[in-house]
Amino acid sequence: MAWGTILRLALVNLRRHPLRSLLTALGFIIAIGSGITMIGLVEGANSSIQGEIAALGTHIMVVVPGSGTLKGQHLGLGSLTTLTAEDAEAIRHECPSVAYATPWVRAAVQAVHANRNWSTAAIGVNDEFVAIRNWALERGRNLTPHEVRSEAKVCLLGKRVAEKLFGATDPLDRIVRVGRIPLHVVGVLAERGQTSVGDDQDDRIAVPFPLVQKRMLGITHVHMIMVSAWSDELLPQAKAEIAELLRRRHRLDPGEEDDFFLNSQEDLADMASTTLGIIQMLLGAIASVSLLVGGINVMNIMLVAVTERTREIGIRMAVGARRRDILAQFLAEAVVLAGLGGAIGLAGGIGLIVLVNRWLTGWQVVISGPAVLGAIGFSAAVGIAFGLYPAWKASRLEPIDALRYE
Questions:
Q1: Please, which residues have CB within 8 angstroms of residue 56's CB and are 6 or more apart in sequence?
Q2: How confident is the model at residue 73 (pLDDT cuts 50, 70, 90)?
Q3: Of 197, 196, 188, residue with least CA distance to 135
Q4: pTM above 0.85, yes or no
Q5: Which residues contact 330 (CB under 8 A, 6 or more apart)?
Q6: 196-237 tens-digit pLDDT
Q7: Whole-angstrom Cα distance, residue 47 to residue 40?
Q8: What residues does each domain of the chain span?
Q9: DSSP per residue, 146-191
Q10: Can you say whether residue 193 is alpha, beta or left, with left for phi > 0 and alpha for psi between -120 and 50 degrees?
Q11: N or C of the chain: less Cβ packing under 10 Å?
Q12: 32, 349 contact by CB (below 8 A)
C-alpha cells in the first residue's frame, strides 16, 4: 500500500473521533508548546544579556575587594577595604596592556534642582569612565583630569535624572544640589536603558570620585576599580599584570590569598551562557517527560482503537491486506496524532514567545532552529515508539479470529 494512501486513511480514521483525537494530541500540544516557549524565552534572555555585555565591551574588567572574615565568618566579596584610588592610578600607568582605569565609588543621594528632587545614585569616577564604558554624551562635555584632581564640583547627569530634575529644559550649566554640595552640570550622558536585571543605567550622576569618596561617604578606599584593556586579545595579559601589580602593592606573600578579585565582561558572558544553558537543559528534560506521558496516552488510545476495529482488521486481511499494511496503518495514525499535536504546540509556543517578548520582556525574539527540528523530530519519534506495540498487536491478529470478534 502506498504511503500516500496510508496517510489519507490515517486522517480519515482520526476524523471519525475528533474529540478523542484532540484529547490524545493535547499531551503533545502542551509538552511541545510549553517546552518551545520556555526554551525560546531562555534563548531570548541569553541573547539580551550577551548583547548588553557586548555593548559594554568584552575587554572591560572590574577589580573588587576580596572577602574578609569576622570572628571566623567569611563576609563575602567586597567586604575588605584594600582597594584605593592610588591602586587605580598604578594600574593605569604600570600595566602596559591596560588602556583606561578609573576608581569607582557609589553613594545613594537625593538630587535637588529648584522645586524638583529625585532619589538617585552618585557614582564617583574619573575622566576615563566614559571611555571605559564606551558611553557617548548626548550634550555637553566630559569631566577633565584637572576637575577630578582638584575635586571640582561638576557632574554628568544620566538621562533619567536630567528628565526628572529639568524636564524639557536644557540642564547644561545649571546647578544640581546633592546633599549640601552644589554641582555644576557639564554634560548629559546618552540614554542606555535598563539592564536585564532591572538596573537603570540612566538613573545616576557621575561626579569626580574624590567628592563622593571623601565628602559624601567619608571613606579612604574605593568600592571597585573599572579597567579596560587595549583589546580583547590583551585581556588575559592585562589580568596577569593587574594581579601581579596589586599583590606587590598590597605586600602579599607568595602563597597568600589575593585580597582582591578580578572579573571581566567575558567571564560574565560565559557565566550567563553556562547558567542559562543549564536552565535550558532542565526545561528540555521536563518537556521530554511531558512528551513521554503523551506517548503513553497515544499507546492507550491506539490499543482501544485496535480493539474497536478488530472486525475491520479481519475484513481487510481477508481481502488481501498484508500484516505489514496493517502495521503501517496503525503506526501512521499514531505518528499523525503525535506530529499534528507537536506542530500545533510548536505554533502556539512560537506565538506565545513573540507575545511575551513584545509585550512583557522586550527581548529579541529568538527561536532556535535546532530546538524546532528537535521538538518535531522527538514528537514523531515518541509517536513511533508508543504506537509500535498497538500496531504490532493489530498486525498479529488472525483473520478468522478477527472476523468472529463481537
A1: 133, 134, 265
A2: very low
A3: 188
A4: no
A5: 302, 305, 306, 387, 390, 391, 394, 395
A6: 556 788 999 999 999 999 999 999 999 999 999 998 888 889
A7: 10
A8: 3-52+270-404, 81-258
A9: HHHHTT-SEEEE-HHHHHHHHTTS--TT-EEEETTEEEEEEEEEPP
A10: left
A11: C
A12: yes
Residues 361, 49 contacting (CB under 8 angstroms): no
Number of other CB atoms surrounding residue 119 within 10 Å? 10
Residue burial 185-201, b: 16+ Cβ < 10 Å; e: rest? bbbbbeebeeebeeebb
**Residues 126/157, Cβ–Cβ less than 8 Å:** no
Percent share of the chain, pLDDT over 90: 36
- How many whole angstroms separate alpha carbon 342 and alpha carbon 329? 20
CA-based Rg of the chain, rounded to a whole angstrom?
Answer: 33
Q: 194-199 contacts: CB < 8 A, separation 24 or more? A: 195/52, 196/45, 196/48, 196/49, 196/52
**Tens digit of each residue's pLDDT (9 = 90 or more) over 294-303:** 778 778 877 7
The x, y and z cell numbers of residue 212, run together, are 563622593
pLDDT over 50 (residue 72): no
